[in-house]
Amino acid sequence: MVTYLVRFMVRHEVYEQFVEWAKAEHIPEVLALPGFVTADLCLRKGGSMEASSKDVMISYKVENEEAMKTYMTEYAMKTREKGLEKFPGQFSAQREVWLETRNFTVK
């Protein structure tokens, strides 16, 4: 299993709209792509009101490295462009791909 982390720094003025867009449009669109299994939307609570942005993170689980490569070469730019068009200049993003994920649970 591959973990794909996307961390957004979203301007306060559009934060609520951005989160709603992520929940209603962006995440379902990405999960419909080949190899994507789950997504967790993580919202940071608190933080300084003086800061110009708030953090949003989405953690996706992807079946395997091949599916991740397919996403990067065939779909990534299309999905990114939609956010850039909807919220121009209102957020920045950092992305990380973790190729090995091990899950542990409490029994």
Structural class: alpha+beta
Q: Flag low-confidence runs.
A: none
Major sheet attributes? 4 strands, antiparallel
Q: Give, in spatial order, the strands making up the sheet with the most strands.
A: 2-3-1-4
**Based on CA inertia axes, which overall geometry fits?**
globular
Secondary-structure element order, N to C: EHEEHE
Residue share in helices? 25-40%
Number of helical regions: 2
Mean pLDDT over all positions = 92
InterPro entries: Dimeric_a/b-barrel, DUF4286
Protein name: DUF4286 domain-containing protein
Pfam families: DUF4286
What would you note in describing this structure?
It comes from Bdellovibrio bacteriovorus. Pfam families: DUF4286 (PF14114). This is DUF4286 domain-containing protein. The protein has 107 residues and is α+β, with helices and mostly antiparallel strands. Helix content is 36%, strand content 34%. A four-stranded antiparallel beta sheet has the order 2-3-1-4, covered by helices on one side. It has one domain (2-98): Alpha-Beta Plaits (2-Layer Sandwich), CATH 3.30.70. The protein has two helices and four strands. The mean pLDDT is 92. The protein is globular and about 40 Å long.
Summarize, please:
Pfam families: DUF4286. By secondary structure, the chain is α+β, with helices and mostly antiparallel strands.
Helix/strand layout:
Layout: E1 2-11, H1 15-31, E2 36-43, E3 53-62, H2 65-86, E4 91-98
Antiparallel strand pairs: 1-3, 1-4, 2-3
Structure characteristics:
single chain, 107 residues, alpha+beta, Alpha-Beta Plaits
